[in-house]
Write a structure and sequence with these properties.
This protein has about 450 residues and is α/β, with parallel strands linked by helices. It has helices at about 15-20, 35-40, 55-70, 80-85, 95-110, 125-130, 135-155, 165-175, 185-210, 235-255, 265, 280-285, 340-355, 380-395, 440-454; strands at about 10-15, 75-80, 115-120, 160-165, 215-220, 225-230, 290-295, 300-305, 320, 360-365, 400-405, 425-430, 435. It has a single domain (about 1-454), classed as Glycosidases (TIM Barrel), CATH 3.20.20. Strand 10, helix 14 and strand 11 form a beta-alpha-beta unit. One of its GO terms (cellular component) is cytosol.
């Protein structure tokens, strides 16, 4: 496999702030929408919250030691916006910036390249109280926040990612109600998707204004190709609608210079798209240095009637599709189909669709399986091996692929699933915070070492 990956190909792991840090009221951090959402009875499995998560805020030196032992050359993490701006605007909280400064310097000391993500779903609650991502002002506030972090860390961080997965933020958070802030809207969710992209563009512009030549800027999108469950025209059309909602709503403005064809027609009577303004596409489509692709599974789609007959009452997720019909293939512990070929399909599809596409990274890929007492997670090893092979196949097909990041370094707070599901290469005992590397940790360590030996 070594010869098929380009020189300098990066091997890494990924985490996110709210999922591992804990310390949600420490050193001036303000509340986020996930703190508020998790406090709602029944919103998160088991009544779990972001405390203590993996207590990474206090245990980061030991966690960096585990990173160093793993042998990765890159680490993708996120900054907590409410740790930097507790109310979502105004001056920066120096203790929050100092924490990330220590973290990044610790990475550098170990020869690990930091890939910093500015937003991984933890919007300051004060901004949500004023409309959240439905509001155009939040995009402006995001650019302000990005500039503050870049000013403090720009000398030690070269890779800057604006957003992680705007699709779940907008659709799961503002349309389906299963993620924070728990809204079920049509026009509001579409506005959130647009303003997330606008905030991305404004943030890149703000950071580039003071950037140095080594700085690179990108965004991370989840990519789940839609597969019709039959050869019927109706199911094919349903798959096209799913693809427009999940992928092209974001990729077309970013890399195609246009809003996704068919998006407005899909939501006729739901939204007038009044939140779009002249010049927005130019801001959203600011040239990027890389695109991160998160892949976990494909979506199998059948045509179905709208759940709400009246368009004005529909949520953004009500597009006349049924995604419940899973294929007869192996599944992970979360019930997700295991189809590594979907990663090849996602990467090659992006490469073929957008001539101006920047280089790609696989920025998240991982799985959940039931734990054994000896942490011999051989299913995860097989999953990772097969998906790395799928990434190699895409590179051989001409995709400019620069790296692969496994999700995740540590077990963590898995959003609405709470602490039920474990993605980590390292097991975390939440009662004691003890870390135990799984067999997959050792496999990935040995695999990376073998790649470097050639």
């Amino acid at each position: 496999m070594t010869a098929s990956f380009p020189p300098g190909f990066r091997w890494g792991v990924a985490t996110s702030a709210f999922q591992i840090e804990g310390a949600t009221t420490t050193d001036g951090r303000g509340p986020s929408i996930w703190d508020t959402f998790a406090a709602v009875p029944g919103a998160v499995a088991g009544g779990d919250t972001g405390e203590p998560a993996a207590d990474h805020y206090h245990r980061w030196p030991a966690d960096l030691g585990l990173l160093g032992d793993l042998g990765v050359d890159s680490y993708r993490f996120s900054v907590s916006w409410p740790r930097i701006q507790p109310s979502g605007s105004g001056r920066a909280e120096p203790r929050g910036l100092d924490f990330y400064r220590r973290l990044v310097e610790g990475l550098r000391e170990r020869g690990i390249e930091p890939f910093l993500t500015l937003y991984h779903w933890d919007l300051p609650q004060a901004l949500e109280d004023n409309g959240g991502w439905r509001s155009r002002d939040t995009a402006a506030r995001f650019a302000e926040y990005a500039a503050l972090v870049h000013e403090r860390l720009g000398d030690v961080v070269d890779h800057w990612t604006t957003l992680n997965e705007p699709y779940p933020c907008a659709v799961a958070g503002y349309g389906e109600g299963r993620h924070a802030p728990g809204a079920k809207e049509g026009d509001g969710a579409l506005a959130a998707a647009h303003h997330l992209l606008l905030g991305h563009g404004l943030a890149v512009q703000a950071m580039r204004a003071r950037a140095t030549p080594q700085h690179q800027f990108g965004i991370v999108l989840n990519q789940s190709p839609a597969v019709p469950v039959t050869d019927s025209a109706a199911d094919a059309a349903a798959a096209a609608r799913q693809d427009t909602l999940l992928r092209r709503q974001f990729t077309d403005p970013l890399f195609g210079g246009r809003y996704a064809p068919g998006l407005a027609a899909m939501f006729d009577g739901v939204s007038e798209f009044a939140f779009r303004r002249d010049g927005d596409l130019e801001t959203i489509g600011v040239p990027l240095d890389y695109l991160g692709v998160n892949y976990y599974y494909r979506v199998h789609v059948a045509d179905a009637p709208h759940r709400e007959p009246e368009p004005a009452l529909r949520t953004v997720a009500d597009i006349g599709v049924d995604t419940s019909r899973l294929p007869d293939v192996p599944r992970t512990g979360m019930g997700w189909p295991v189809e590594p070929e979907g990663l090849t399909e996602a990467l090659v599809g992006l490469h073929n669709r957008y001539p101006a596409l920047p280089p790609l990274y696989v920025t998240e890929n991982g799985c959940v399986y039931p734990d054994r007492s000896d942490f011999a997670d051989y299913e995860r090893i097989t999953f990772l091996s097969e998906h790395i092979e799928a990434a190699r196949t895409a590179a051989m097909a001409g995709v400019d692929l620069r790296g692969y990041f496994c999700w995740s370094l540590l077990d963590n707070f898995e959003w609405a699933h709470g602490y039920k599901h474990r993605f980590g290469l390292i097991h975390v005992d939440y009662a004691t915070q003890a870390r135990t590397p799984r067999a997959s940790y050792r496999w990935y360590r040995d695999f990376i070492a073998a790649q470097r030996l050639g």
